[in-house]
Amino acid sequence: MIRTLIQLARKGIATQDDLFPNLPDYNRGLPMVTENECNGCQECATACPTNAITLGADGAVTLDRGLCIACGACTRSCKTGAIAVDRRTTVAVLKRQDLVLSNHPAPIADSRAVTNPIFRRSIHVREVATGDNATDLEINASTNPIFDGGRFGIHIVASPRHADALAVTGPVPRAMQDPLRRCWNAMAEPRIVIAVGAAAISGVPWQGGYAEANGVDAILPVAAYIPGCPPHPWYILHGLLLAMGRVDPREAR
């Protein structure tokens, strides 16, 4: 026991003090749309396995991060740099349309009023896994000593009766829709839903199939969207803090 304590003391503090740092070079992160002119070659759109990219005749490039599985095929195939790697970790948003990036963006309404100030100091989260184990592991990682979600007042609970928020992972197929609704109905007001990962946001890559796995939006109202497949722990913490009203929505995008 004494040797264990000595070893722990030598290791020092593992928790990262630098909040929401850029991802290291070996992590490809998510794609983003840049101001570089697109030559219309269609290679990025063809390479994308989930049809997250569309190109317009006027040179417009549109990228839907809600459909993006972060495979990196688009950034590898783009010759002009119109689509590039984004290593920022403040990528969560409050509205679904804010995940759609374009070099010809349309005006969007201010979404800051969506957050509930009652959660600013702490939030208790019940995770509902509907088929995305990788994202489940990243949620677990967000609570470890390195990321330490507890220092922000974020706590994972076992029962929806103790929860303020449902963090939904996976595409929410038909067999999980009723259990998800039961969890939601067991929660006391005020309560919110957070879609964690591309599968929970849009159902990719299973959307449109016989299992009706089209994401949580089709079942419950969503207060925050965390893209990624799976999302990095910093993505998750940013999304939770965004839903709590602790960070500015304008930091994303």
Could you describe the 3D structure shown?
The chain has 253 residues and is of the alpha/beta class. It contains 7 helices and 10 strands. The protein has a domain of 140 residues: 3-Layer(aba) Sandwich (Rossmann fold), CATH 3.40.50.12280. The strands form 3 sheets. It has a 5-stranded parallel beta sheet, sandwiched between helices. It has a 3-stranded antiparallel beta sheet with strand order 2-3-5, with no helix packed on it.
Which tags fit this structure?
253 residues, alpha/beta, Rossmann fold, five-stranded parallel β-sheet, globular
The N- and C-terminal alpha carbons lie at a distance of 48 Å
Multimerization state: single chain
Which CATH architecture of the domain at 112-251?
A: 3-Layer(aba) Sandwich
Q: Percentage of helical residues? A: 10-25%
- Main β-sheet, spatial strand arrangement: 7-6-8-9-10
Strand content: 15-25%
Question: Which CATH top level class of the domain at 112-251 fits?
Answer: Alpha Beta
Estimated radius of gyration:
19 Å
Helix-strand topology string: HEHEEHEEEHEEHEHEH
Kindly report the average pLDDT value.
91
Contiguous uncertain segments of 5+ residues: none
Question: What would you say about this model in short?
Answer:
The chain has helices at 2-11, 43-47, 73-77, 133-141, 174-186, 198-202, 233-244, and strands at residues 30-33, 53-55, 61-64, 83-86, 100-102, 123-129, 154-156, 165-169, 192-196, 224-226.
Blueprint (SSEs and pairs):
Elements: H1 2-11, E1 30-33, H2 43-47, E2 53-55, E3 61-64, H3 73-77, E4 83-86, E5 100-102, E6 123-129, H4 133-141, E7 154-156, E8 165-169, H5 174-186, E9 192-196, H6 198-202, E10 224-226, H7 233-244
Parallel strand pairs: 6-7, 6-8, 8-9, 9-10
Antiparallel strand pairs: 1-4, 2-3, 3-5
